Amino acid sequence: KIDYEQLRKLYDETCRTKNVQYSYGTAGFRTLAKDLDTVMFTTGILAVLRSLKLQGQYVGVMITASHNPYQDNGVKIVEPDGSMLLASWEPYAMQLANAASFATHFEEFYAELVKLIELEKIDLGASNIAPHIVVGRDSRESSPCLLRCLTSTMASVFHARVLDLGCVTTPQLHYITDLSNRREREADSALAAATEQDYYSFFIGAFNELFTTYDMEKRLSVPKLFIDTANGIGGPQLKKLLASKDWVVPSDQIEIINDKSDVPKLLNSECGADYVKTNQRLPKGLSPSSFESLYCSFDGDADRVVFYYVDSELKFHLLDGDKISTLFAKFLSKQLEMANLERSLKIGVVQTAYANGSSTAYIKDTLHCPVSCTKTGVKHLHHEAATQYDIGIYFEANGHGTIIFSEKFHQTIESELSKPNDHTLALKTLSCFAKLINQTVGDAMSDMLAVLATLAILKMAPMNWDEEYKDLPNKLVKCIVPDRSIFQTTDQERKLQNPVGLQSKIDSVIAKYPMGRSFVRASGTEDAVRVYAECQDMSKLDQFCNEIVGYVK
Ligand code: 16G
Ligand code: ZN
């Protein structure tokens, strides 16, 4: 039922990057753009199979390498509901890619493909099901060419309908994939496939509704917001949002910097969320001018955001993912309380071991909110937030995160709003806020709007936000080791199981430093081991960290 000859022809033309070992990691496939042709070809096929497996629902595919340098690129598959590819399909993605990469003849690849189709019982002949695919790419120079590799077989071999969004942010692709399926389900054929415009209308609508609920003028509470878009796709997309007729915040309150997405080499270079978080300094293009301003940085595909400000002594202060989590937790738990729902709806924060110890203590002891810790990687946090809480707030310290609102949350709010009560303001706030958040995945634009709305409602300046708790001094070091795979962890990556005996040595170092905490884990994205350390005394931090590193190397 597959057009064998056509597939073979496309395979021969497209699979030019041979003998590259591909692995589908936490962020999909990612490597040098010049090595990706083959894996694009097979990922396109896998996305089609995933859609067929799911009765032809829209499956998303995003071409991006996020905060990586401009020479890199990558690809990941998105489920019909906007979440990450089902974990049990990740090995298939690898098998198919490596079969094509290492095959000497087309038949070897074809056999692997047939094996997968049979294993998953996918009916290629079902004439009433056409696979549906949504594709998007970030601003990288290599993306158009890789897109052709990705989509080459979709229509011609598999009769797929392909919705090409062009250049979009990663969260836009997630959102539009989910929305397209919701529309199909509601048989809303008049609206058919979702577009970027739906995304802007929806989030601006929620933002405006929140301000109207509070009878606030649509001005930011800070005099000015500077947005560093890492010279990535966030720049043009944000400009579209700001140019929308419904966006009414005065234009002199917002300035976009590092918005040269058309100059390939500038992407993520000395700017963007990763640079600012790692180096704890302003990005290129910003000089500390006004100390009342708020600043934020997106990463290259705009799924991460961190905020910062400079104080009156022009000292830099970072407001990272932990601070975003705690701001939302403070705001939403207060709203729940005011709506008298704190006993019926469960709010909680999900963090990883990289969260600063002070943030964890603040959430538990000051906000009296439950906290969970999971392994690094968005899928782990997302899963915990979605299954354990009605309002599940999750952010990695690096700025990637969102809030998940449960079905019970929506039903409860709706039913409370339908009866007369004294808590309408809080109920409406919760309802609008849930709309303002892109629940499919962390989204720099949506998270930014939610932070701006929260600060305006709480009448908080960046400094007040920062003062809620003070970070413990901390350090993250990358160690190159001969074989990182021997570093195996347990307890959500907070303890080493292997090499045997190393953890007890680490524990004995930790015991010497007041408020000391440290852990060691193999990176999932680089050939290195990461060492994290935090302690009370800034002047002891280097020594603390070095002692741990000494045992690791
Ligand atoms: C990936 C993850 C990110 C995590 C990072 C850790 C996704 C979409 N991305 O980029 O969440 O913080 O890996 O990198 O899950 P590491 O394993 O090298 O420390
Ligand atoms: Zn990213």
Strand order of the largest sheet: 1-3-2-4-5
Helix count? 18
CATH architecture of the largest domain: 3-Layer(aba) Sandwich
Name the ligand types: 2-acetamido-2-deoxy-6-O-phosphono-alpha-D-glucopyranose, zinc ion
Measured between the Cα atoms of the first and last residue, the distance is: 55 Å
Q: Helical amount among residues, as a percent range?
A: 40-55%
Largest sheet: 5 strands, mixed
Write a structural description.
This protein has 553 residues and is of the alpha/beta class. It has 3 domains: 4-192, Alpha-D-Glucose-1,6-Bisphosphate, Chain A, domain 3; 195-471, Alpha-D-Glucose-1,6-Bisphosphate, Chain A, domain 3 (3-Layer(aba) Sandwich), CATH 3.40.120.10; 474-552, Alpha-D-phosphohexomutase, C-terminal domain (TATA-Binding Protein, 2-Layer Sandwich), CATH 3.30.310. Helix content is 41%, strand content 18%. Helix 13 (407-418) packs antiparallel against helix 14. It is globular. The termini are far apart. The model has no long low-confidence stretch (mean pLDDT 95). It binds 2-acetamido-2-deoxy-6-O-phosphono-alpha-D-glucopyranose and zinc ion. Zinc ion is lined by residues 66-67, 170, 299, 301, 303-304. 2-acetamido-2-deoxy-6-O-phosphono-alpha-D-glucopyranose (16G) binds next to loops.
How would you describe this structure in keywords?
553 residues; 19 strands; Alpha-D-Glucose-1,6-Bisphosphate, Chain A, domain 3; TATA-Binding Protein; alpha/beta; 3 domains; binds zinc ion; globular; binds 2-acetamido-2-deoxy-6-O-phosphono-alpha-D-glucopyranose; 41% helix
